[in-house]
# Entry
Amino acid sequence: MTEASSLPLYPHRHLLGIRDLSPVDIELLLDRADAAVAISRRHEKKTSTLRGRTQINLFYEASTRTQSSFELAGKRLGADVMNMSVASSSVKKGETLIDTAMTLNAMRPDILIIRHASAGAAALLAQKVGCSVVNAGDGAHEHPTQALLDALTIRRAKGNLSRLTVAICGDILHSRVARSNILLLNALGARVRVVAPSTLLPSGIAQMGVEVCATMAEGLKDADVVMMLRLQRERMEGAFVPSVREYFRYFGLDAEKLKAAKPDALVMHPGPMNRGVEIASEIADGPQSVIQEQVEMGVAVRMAVMEALLDPRRNREGVSA
Amino acid sequence: MSVTVFQRARIVDPSRGLDEVGTVIVNGKKIVAAGAAALNQGAPEGAAIIDCAGKAIIPGLVDGRVFIGEPGGEHRETIASASVAAAAGGVTSVIMMPDTDPVIDNVALVEFVLRTARDTASVNVFPAAAITKGLEGREMTEFGLLREAGAVAFTDGRHTISNALTMRRALTYARDFGATIVHETQDKDLAGSGVMNEGLYASWLGLSGIPREAEAIPLERDLMLARLTRGNYHAAKISTAMSANAIARAKADGAKVTAGVSINHLSLNENDVGEYRTFFRLSPPLRTEDDRLAMIEALRDGTIDIVVSSHDPQDVDTKRLPFADAADGAIGLETLLGAALRLYHNEYLSLLRVIEVLSTAPAKLFGLPGGTLKPGAAADLVLVDLEEPWIVREDAIRSRSKNTCFEGARLQGRVLQTMVSGRTVFAG
# Structure
């Protein structure tokens, strides 16, 4: 990207969470991502920004979508991308993580992308390796690139996030997507509501910078954006909510419930969707849905993040890489 | 017999309510004098005379809750290595938890511990035996025989007995032998996959929380059973105001109930977990600052009787992991006194009360010798500079495991010399 060199130097070495970012950092990444969207829409999609750099994807949880998005982003930037398939069985996860980190570090990668079931895993890895680390989701903690791609999708549709009302609906308790989005949306001045059965809300939610709503009617009223979260099937069979049927009745997004939101409200979902559980098919495929755009923005945001973290000026200017 | 004379020391002896400048004379294994009255008592010829002006002599600490890896986890800690750490921390007696491999649930194991301690340890080691075989919460161990063999208390260590009937029978049966049931309470269903205190802080970190009620519900049950059975019950490690209130009510009802708190819960709170620092992953979890202050208040007003280190050595295999996968526990023998003296320096507690809850009260509670400087008592004592500042450094830790919550902490009050039965086991 030729215009990248005119952008301000991004001040962080890792992307572990939205919490570490200032509004300026976030806007900078979104600006870079806008440029990356243009590249992905070209006939010739490959650039040489990260030529000669090595990217390793280390996914302890299966995620076709996120992993391929990171892989494609790296390849479009010209990096050499390696996917580490991690046997998640027998060996204790943590031992594997530290051991694997040390092994990978010895191969001198430039950037490591990690997805892990334990909160804090990305931060732990960042302490052990000499390269940049991107958190692609750690337990119920954060998933920063998802929040960034959601913000980019909203910004491109609405122009600005400030003063928009965003309703995040579903399993907030277990969701890293919800936490990253709550932090990012607050940083950019949006009003955030959460809608969920109380068994799926974390302790202290009212102090997390959100308005807690008990019903979809209340939560979606005049909303500009409706973000649905995935609900794991095992959590719907008596543990947190009694049944899929009851959950969809009260918290699934259908045409009737969506009427409460503004007519031009965006409908979003981080995927993969459970059609008929948290979202009706007619809505997922309907005119207000930007779910496919989110996927496209995902590649752009990941290109922007990696390019910002691996900015060659960092070494030239003596900033520790 | 060798004689040592500690001259002009500040003598702090809670067993006699004594806090005065005086002289302590040790003859052989015993204290022969300790107080102002001994100031001008002549020393016999050949006595070692130590000028202790500006320093204090306290009875050796009696630590009621110490986990040791021997047998089965010697890479974490042995009875010998724990005793070196204890001596350096001014701890002259430890009660060793039965969570070993094999579990201390039979006479042979109690004898093994006592024999190993006799041969390798420099401080007094008293085994606590399991309440239930294998710590499984089902069948009672042989309280009578174990007690005769030398078990000083009964506890399932880190485990909570979930069956109320088992607990009732244990309390009832232990009463026949004058034994105390020591219990750490956490409802395993309510705690679930929790790894830190439930609340906003855990929610942001994406970690599952453990509510206060997970401690209080089985505790309340135990207290009712203690009232019912008239058995001796000791709540091993309480961490919340809710639990302290329950203890206070049971005491007011006349139940034979006592309570302990770990030094960590008097010194730290959930914010110390920071960014997933696994050394601060403890059970019960570190709570809020309000809970910490409530623990200090409960110690001040007598609701809580003793303070323990809850020394729990863990190594890199169990701590250098993502927070949710790491083991609970922190070491504490070497920092117990220094951390507890903060309560004195910050004027929360008198010096007498601090030493009482660390030494005199636990000795009395578990029926152990020690905890006193009375003439005639075994010379288990510590010479300490109450004012000397020091910084806890990992490389100076004597314990075989380094999982301290106090790395880099500035403590005030340093052990200069530790004596067990008249023998100097540590000199700093």
Notes: Residues 60-365 of chain B form a domain with the TIM Barrel fold (CATH 3.20.20.140). Chain B has one domain: 60-365. Chain B touches chain A at residues 198-209, 211, 275-276, 317, 320-326 (CB under 8 Å).
